[in-house]
Design goal:
Strand content of chain B: under 5%
Low-confidence stretches of chain B: 111-122, 125-134
Largest sheet of chain A: 7 strands, mixed
Mean pLDDT of chain A: 92
Mean pLDDT of chain B: 78
Oligomer: heterodimer
Strand order of the largest sheet of chain B: 1-2
Structural class of chain A: alpha+beta
Radius of gyration of chain A: 15 Å
Number of helices of chain B: 7
């Protein structure tokens, strides 16, 4: 159905996991996940479901962890390639910004933090505007 | 309520549901091991020593990467002073409860392989037909 919202990844008792929608209405995280091999996509969906139902405290640090500042990450693997889905928390919602393959055991490339924070800022600005509009009514 | 990406994916066909359920179980078991380690204040190095395996192998278990045997699972939980109890629940009931979605399909199940089995395989299919009840 075309009227289904596409940005909700999973809903559970404790959390909602969402894909960030950019100002140009693209969803880099969902596009990234949809392009992954079947088993890797299923792993991430299972992580989202577990997060939604049980909260972040029930995911091991091999699956989910804080990366820097407000940016956290879901972790996965495609064979030997480490995959990362940066995200941030907004109330009871975890919002995934985008996805990328992490180069080896090295730290995240700086541009990935920059992109995650840029998308986060876009979402926060929109949320603030929506909140002001609601209060103004 | 609208379907989420997760529900949309698992209700598409039986193979998606099957793959998701495998990953879900691996994630849940890894989470249980992690919780048991926290309860007993055992770190990865200590658990590796208790089990006589490498720390890397414990990390793989916590990442849900290893397809653990039931015997290995029993060993892990015994080393942590725990018993692992298993139970089943209806797959759709659990997902409906999980996502509070009232309109999940009643049933998606694999039909037995039919006489078209070999041609399906030759076409790159998986030899199954899927029936989705309304």
């Amino acid at each position: 159905m075309s009227d289904q919202p596409k940005h909700i990844a999973a809903v559970g008792k404790l959390r909602t996991v969402e894909y960030a929608v950019r100002d140009d209405e693209t969803m880099p995280a969902r596009e990234y996940i949809d392009g992954l091999p079947k088993n890797v996509k299923e792993r991430f969906l299972a992580l989202f479901g577990h997060m939604a139902q049980n909260g972040e405290g029930r995911l091991t640090d091999v699956m989910f962890c804080r990366e820097r500042g407000e940016i956290y990450t879901f972790k996965g693997k495609d064979n030997k390639i480490r995959l990362r889905l940066p995200c941030f928390k907004l109330g009871n919602r975890w919002i995934i910004t985008h996805g990328f393959p992490k180069p080896g055991k090295s730290k995240w490339p700086e541009e990935q933090f920059k992109l995650a924070n840029e998308i986060r800022e876009e979402v926060l600005v929109r949320e603030r505007k929506a909140s002001c509009n609601t209060k103004g009514r | 309520m609208a379907k989420t990406h997760l529900t949309e994916y698992v209700t598409q066909n039986y193979e998606n549901l099957r793959g998701f359920q495998q990953e879900r179980l691996l994630v849940e078991v890894a989470s249980l091991i992690d919780q048991a380690m926290k309860d007993k204040m055992v770190n990865r190095t200590q658990l590796a020593e208790l089990l006589g395996v490498t720390k890397g192998r414990v990390t793989q278990c916590l990442g849900g990467e290893r397809n653990l045997t039931l015997r290995t699972l029993a060993d892990i939980f015994t080393a942590l002073g725990k018993s692992l109890l298993l139970q089943t629940e209806d797959v759709w009931a659990s997902l409906a409860d999980w996502e509070s979605i009232p309109n999940l399909p009643a049933e998606i199940k694999p039909a037995r392989p039919t006489t078209t089995y070999s041609s399906n395989i030759a076409d790159g299919g998986d030899g199954y037909e899927y029936s989705i009840a309304a």
